[in-house]
Amino acid sequence: MTADTTCPMGHGDPSVRTLLGRQNKDWWPDALAVDVLTPNGAANPMGDDFSYAEAFKALDYAALKADLTALMTDSQPWWPADYGHYGPFFIRMSWHAAGTYRTGDGRGGANSGQQRFAPLNSWPDNGNLDKARRLLWPIKQKYGQSISWADLFVLAGNVAIESMGGPVFGFGAGRADVYEPEKDIYWGDEDKWVNEGVQTRIDPERGLEELDGPLAAIQMGLIYVNPEGPGGNPDPLLSARDMKATFLRMAMDSEETVALTAGGHTFGKAHGNGDASLLGKAPAGGDLGSLGFGWLSSAEHGGIGEHTVTSGIEGSWVNTPTTWSENYFRLLLDYDYELVHSPAGAQQWQPINQKPEDMAPAAWDPEVKVPTMMTTADMALKLDPEFRAVSEKFRTDHQAFKDAFARAWFKLTHRDMGPKVRYLGPEVPSEVLIWQDPVPAGQEPSAADIAAVKAKIASSPLTVRDLVKTAWASASTYRKSDHRGGANGARIALAPQKDWDVNEPAMLAKVLETLNGLRGSMSLADAIVLGGVVGLEKAILDAGFTVEVPFIGGRGDATQDQTDVESFHWLEPQADGFRNYLPKKLRVKTEEMLLDRASLLGLSAPEMTVLVGGLRVLGANFGGRDHGHFTKRSGHLTNDFFVNLLDMTNAWKASDESEEEYVATDRSSGGERWRASRADLVFGSNSELRAIAEVYAEKGHEMKFVKDFVAAWTKVMNADRFDLA
User: Fold this and answer.
1) What is the C-alpha separation between 438 and 562, in angstroms, rounded?
2) β-strands 337-341, 347-351 pairing
3) How many CA atoms lie within 13 A of 577 on its CB side?
């Protein structure tokens, strides 16, 4: 093991950080601690048997879209619509609901409607979107359980685009709501927000290559980049650099970045026509009487409508802010621009000697003409050579721009939904997209076929260790965050997964070659999982028990052409405590990386505990390491890991100053007994995990251990079987 103190993604400050960073209680210590009533996670007020997919079937989809379309021009006096049209407002709401997605861990995004909760509902970059959500409430109230908030956020954006003549690729429903903030997301360690004049997470001159872990924005509370430039520096080329890295971390290439930026800024305006210092607290910090409204202005005029302050930037990007047009690229590329300040003091760019016909109508008086503007991020599309080439292409080929924007918007708002099989509704596009990780439909093998292949595998030279390691490597790529990975598709046989160091390519190739020769008409994906069943059942029998390991076939095999190699690189584990894999020391403690991986797999603490204990005695460690292999009966599914871990005749001590490896010696003789990693010893040192480990170490619980291991194993093997839900 090399001592590399960089972050899990290979970047960042060498100081150790906690896995979750700052949480809501850090930002708003006076907030009501509702979670004391839900120690095991938020209760679902709909009940555990509620099926959103079934409820959605009762939705009058056409009526819902008609109501949303009517809402776009139904301006309310408590938050009046710019230009009499809420469309741009809802586009921003949808964009920001989805835009928190990051490829590094698949977290964020629109999938569960997290924009309703802190911290996202109070991020500076989400300023005043609380009003957009309240505008939607009468519609949500009307259609009730048939449409989730999460789906409604995205659909409202689509309808907004359509209502202004813009292109839409489609819409897939299926995002079920949750009822509390997701607590396993690392949003950063900073103690100040982006609007508080603090330094960025990186050296602004060096770019995002040093940005910590899965994060994509360079300041706390940003969705993408600071529109005024990195750290407020209005340098378009530095902004372009950060835009490319940020959007790449959100699964967008440069063409998609230009299309989204230009398409989004074809509509609406930014708000900075007032004094930002008069704005009140964000929703999470407001008083009871505000009922969750944030950023209320103490100005005499109330700070609404004409006087609204959100980003601090003021003005429209184009002269036709409520109509899809070709004007964005024309105005950006044809005019020279100068740096000016908005009434709120924000830095922005204004065209020099703008023609009257190219000026925008004032949002509250169409007879008044005002100059358009561009942000530093917009100027990046003009001055960066790569972005400029794409902008010129889209300017001369408007149809290409329309198609690129529609597809990029669909990707933005659906990227975290996983495979297309999860999509619901009449507007799901027929085209299958590579980022949806397509897998051909599988055929469920007959009982006779399953028995025949099982017998062949059992008679093969493949060992329990070979079979268990391969099945685990295939299935444990699953991420509940964005529903990617898993055993379906057998992508472990394809690039890049077949070449991942953690998968021990030479061993893997041998196992897959053997399984391919034995599986007959069964898919390789099924054969891999079935091989794990064979290995486990032998290990259980050798331990003195008889337990059938469930198997449900029907997986398909993906092809290399159906696999986005670059995108799948993000699923490669930088550490895997289940296999005791840690190629280099990370900024996050090893045991916290284990928890993170278990969380992405959707495991509970007991499930994580029993799986680690079982995998250790089965010899599933990376490279055959003996760390945590606390047994003299290797390959037998016993509770020896827990029995020997908790044996008080062992004395444990770190073997070196890295404190990643520990050695147990006999307290009496001093002789060496075992070696362990931090991912092993945490089950003895952490009081909560120890309490679970003690259950599995108790006499009389040997069979319980086996049954619980099988249940947790089967859960992982079927985690991506959305057809079984």
Assistant:
1) 6
2) antiparallel
3) 31
Token digits of residue 356: 């009257």
Tokens of 638: 């016993």
Is the four-CA dihedral 650, 653, 655, 659 of positive or negative sign?
A: positive
- Smallest CA-to-CA distance from 681 within 650, 637, 635, 721 is with 650
Which pLDDT belongs to residue 38?
72
Asked if 11 is an active-site residue, the reply is no
Alpha helices in 249-334 (DSSP H): 254-264, 327-334
Tokens 């034995």: give the residue: 518
Class of the domain covering 447-571: mainly alpha
Spell out the domain ranges in the chain. 447-571
Residue among 11, 85, 96, 341 flagged as catalytic: 96
Q: Is the pLDDT of residue 11 over 60?
A: no
Q: Give me the pLDDT at residue 29, please.
A: 86
- Tell me the C-alpha distance between 223 and 95, whole Å: 9
Tokens representing 516 are 């391919």
Q: Which of 376, 370, 384 has its CA nearest to residue 337?
A: 376
Q: Per mean pLDDT, which range of 237-251, 504-518, 638-652 is the poorest?
A: 237-251
Share of the chain above pLDDT 70, in %: 95
Neighbour count for residue 559 (Cβ, 10 Å): 12
Residues 6+ apart with CB under 8 A from 379: 236, 239, 332, 337, 349
Could you tell me whether strands 661-666 and 347-351 are parallel, antiparallel, or unpaired per DSSP bridges? unpaired
The dihedral through the CA atoms of 629, 630, 633, 635 has a sign that is negative
User: Which residue type occupies 135?
Assistant: L
What is the rounded end-to-end Cα distance, in angstroms, of the chain?
Answer: 41
41/48 Cα distance (integer angstroms) = 13
Nearest-10 crossing angle of helices 687-697, 678-685: 90
- Span 54-70, pLDDT tens digits: 999 999 999 999 999 99
Q: What is the mean pLDDT of the chain?
A: 94
